[in-house]
């Protein structure tokens, strides 16, 4: 038996842990672009902010898209509700609230991540330190994940936690693709200029997939393969299909445990069926942007339905 | 000001006391540098685990550690037996007093406690008149604050009969000590405290409503994660294996209190609440409370839920009532109180007020309804200006205050940069009441870390120690 409020806390704790890490990964990709291509750096930082869903809030505060400004805003600004610092703090507040549902190891890893990131992000980041700060963020979230997977019982507590992780991750991957969908369109792909290569690598890098891509596909970047990898590949841990495979699985566990299926089961099942039946060609034919926009909308709806069906509030 | 205090380890006159002899032998073999290291280890453990408390009114340090000292406070088996007899008697009297005060009020009719002290008291809840809680127990969990003056003089400083806190520190302090110094616990037989959560759970289950079928569902009610004692609420729920709930999780469904779960509403039979009376039920008490459960008092009056501690128990630990405790103990148990009270001046009485105002620089003056060391004056440690300022407050509302002599609380050594140094301590053992009375051998020793200070409250710079009751 689980309190609705506790399920809610677990769900959001994991969404925010995922988000804290995603912000670091986006900054990492942006930094890479800025280092390799100095001309259009501000455009790249703009895409990073769009992928983070933080562009409007950023432009209210800054007029220049510089590495220092964007990194500060996405990593340490406590006025930005999605920054790494705010996310880790929100994750910890949720963890504190649901403490009795967590193993000691999980709680301590979150608490320690919060303590160490708070210390590290207390002062503006020196540009020279940015790579090591990004590494530290990824290391802390990896430690949380390790403690979590290594010690948590696979029960409803685990299920609600995973729902949070995968709803957030699916949203993140879809947004990254949507911001850059035009560089993946077939009309451009034939050109295959150096510029495109950078863009494609940047997309892969923002989901930490620039190396694994080469294990799966040929060494050359091909837009349809990149889209296939991030949308349809069942093995790629940040692809939309991968996320929905686990979302439907954990929802099924909950449905079986409680002996009851809800609206969220239907929604997740539909998306899952659509993903497993689709080919990347169909998606391109129907319009990549439209596909992603629909996906993001349905994914948000799934989150709302989970909250309602399991009495989060 | 320095008071000549009794040191529990090394009294000046007699030298090392017996309960400390084995520990002292061990201590002398230790490398001081290693001990300092251990002290830092302890702090790391506490911070990592998140054993923190919030200090109200300090934005910056909203989560702080209670400093922990690694020198244990040691009580012999004999001393403990004597203390438990006194505590048991007192706890029996507290429950009998509560039952009487909310029913026949015989103690008032007998003139042993003045009527107006009850009638005008905010801690007295008229809503509880005629209500008999499940199993007849009013105060289930009690933390009796005890101070020591000499080898054989123990006094009760306060009876915490509402929602005493600090038991998680008793447990975590022991846990930490066993991690830091496993060899000590092999050499010295210390009675265990770690079964407290199991005892608490059994004790709460034993006072379930009569109508409960099968094993009762128990929950801990917390005001939320921003409360200063939230760590303890979560800790106890976790250790007992019960749900930790907030007011927003609960509602009254079909005459029972129920919690909102992922599968719908589930009935609760016993609620260990860590929310004050006035916030418990917005329909009965403070209407603006979002921390309680609307209608829970109706369920309670119908006998369908146990609330621990019962609403209205504050009348038994009120500081104005405290001064009558010797009479109360004798009235209900028929015997003199084994544990004494500290002499207390009730400032509501004109003669006492006069005396207190004249001797304010020698006395400890406390607010009747205050707690946590807030709003009190320690005369001998205060400046002349502070005394004058306090005198004005006192003269304006005399009935709001009581005064006690400044006692030379016993000391126990703490480890400082310069080695061992004596500091004043008190002791809060925890008592569980159901169909029996159980006292866990140990308790929370609070220690005033500042040299000469007599204020042990954590909110005022106090720390804690592990408390050992020897199995001798």
Could you explain the architecture of this structure?
Chain A: Residues 2-310 form the DUF403 domain. Chain A: This is Alpha-E domain-containing protein. Chain A: InterPro entries: ATP-dep_Glu-Cys_Ligase-2, DUF403. Chain A: It holds the Pfam family Alpha-E. The complex is a heterodimer of chains A (313) and B (472). Chain A has 313 residues and is mainly alpha-helical. Helix content of chain A is 74%, strand content 0%. Chain A has 16 helices and no strands. The longest helix of chain A has 33 residues, at 4-36. The mean pLDDT of chain A is 92. Chain B is globular. Chain B starts with 20 loop residues before the first helix and ends with a strand. In chain B, a hairpin with a 2-residue loop joins strand 9 and strand 10. In chain B, the strands form six sheets. In chain B, strands 3-23-22-19-18 form a five-stranded mixed beta sheet. Mean pLDDT of chain B is 91; it is low at 56-61. Classes of the chains: A mainly alpha (313), B alpha+beta (472). The A-B interface holds A 1-5, 7, 93, 96-97, 99-100, 104, 107-108, 111-112, 115, 156, 160, 254, 258, 260, 310-311 and B 47-50, 224-225, 230, 234, 237-238, 243-246, 248-249, 259-264, 266.
The figure for the number of domains of chain B is: 3
Q: What is the 3D shape of chain B?
A: globular
Biggest sheet architecture of chain A: none
Summed over residues and divided by their number, the pLDDT of chain A gives a mean of 92
* Principal-axis shape of chain A: globular
Kindly provide the radius of gyration of chain A, computed on alpha-carbon positions and rounded to a whole number of angstroms: 19 Å
The fraction of residues in strands of chain A falls at under 5%
Structural class of chain A: mainly alpha
Widest sheet, order of strands of chain B = 3-23-22-19-18
Q: Uncertain runs of chain B with pLDDT below 50, 5 residues or more?
A: 56-61
Low-pLDDT parts of chain A are: none
**Separation, N- and C-terminal Cα atoms of chain B:** 37 Å
Number of helices of chain A: 16
Binned strand content of chain B: 15-25%
Domain DUF403 (chain A): 2-310
Pfam family, one (chain A): Alpha-E
InterPro entries (chain A): ATP-dep_Glu-Cys_Ligase-2, DUF403
Protein name (chain A): Alpha-E domain-containing protein
